[in-house]
Amino acid sequence: MSTPVALAMPTVPRTRRSPDDIASAAPVEGPKKVLLASPRGYCAGVDRAVIAVEKALEHYGAPVYVRKQIVHNKHVVETLESQGAVFVDEVDEVPEGSLLVFSAHGVSPAVVQSAAERNLETIDATCPLVTKVHREAVRFAKRGQQILLIGHVGHEEVEGTFGEAPEQTIIVNSPADVDTLEVEDPDNLVWLSQTTLSVDEALETVSRLRERFPNLQDPPSDDICYATSNRQGAIKEIAPRADLVIVVGSSNSSNSVRLKEVAAEYGAKRAERVDNANQVDEAWFEGTATVGVTSGASVPEVLVRDVLGLLADYGYGEIEEVVTAEEDILFSLPKELRARLTADGDADRNLGGRGARPAR
User: Fold this and answer.
1) Residues 119 and 134 both lie in one domain
2) Which sites bind (2E)-4-hydroxy-3-methylbut-2-enyl diphosphate (predicted)?
3) Annotated binding site
């Protein structure tokens, strides 16, 4: 078994230039303000997965092993590590008979089988919207259809979905891949997609696929999750009005990276992604009147608040919340965990999306 990854060193405070220095370097014309995206941050699937690990630690005790990062956010992972979670890359790193949580991104049947062979007790924290895509892959494969899976090669979610029907699935990494695709029967194709893609890029890929394969079939419903679509929709409203857009989210978070790309594509003069406020460069504020702020679906609100606090220090105290959608999705905890909570008399077994729980 590999040695658990040590906690990251505490963030070292930056030595920053003063607000007066920034103002004198490039005066700002007009009032300073923040456009704060809503929705932003935690979605119901992320909330469910994080709470699943917290509840497992509470009811089973440490260590609780987690395959891969439970969600793609450094702050969340380090916080759970400090509570006793141990993150591993593969099942064979977990001691036999231990408790293992599958991450929100999902796993292939081969991973489930490997866990069973090691006699591991498992909790499946896969986002229900990802599970929906897995079920679609199984159903289409049973029908004998070839699946064109639109998604990024190497992403954990794509690996999990691909694993449901590897002999009948082709991964389409980008619109540019379409021209070189080789399929068995162009009249027996269906497409699926990773849930955290850029909505526009996914639609472009589907359009190009349909040009090559006119009989391409659609899935029963859109695979890109509501949270990804909503966060991209909010930043599309903000970007044309912003001199700078700051996206809070980790570099391995697909939906956070997409938010930065969408902001730039839809008119932001500058778009940057940061893990936390410490990574914000105050030089970005030179000549900047309007700052847009958003966060990926795996980002706790406390990280956004830290960025807003920094912005306030530099004169961006006025906040306009730009609301483009309301979210009230609720997901129950994984069934394996619910059974344990019921036995232990823990009635707090439902969780929600935006606003349903206090920020961590």
Assistant:
1) no
2) 72, 105, 155, 195, 253-255, 298
3) 43, 72, 105, 127, 155, 195, 225, 253-255, 298
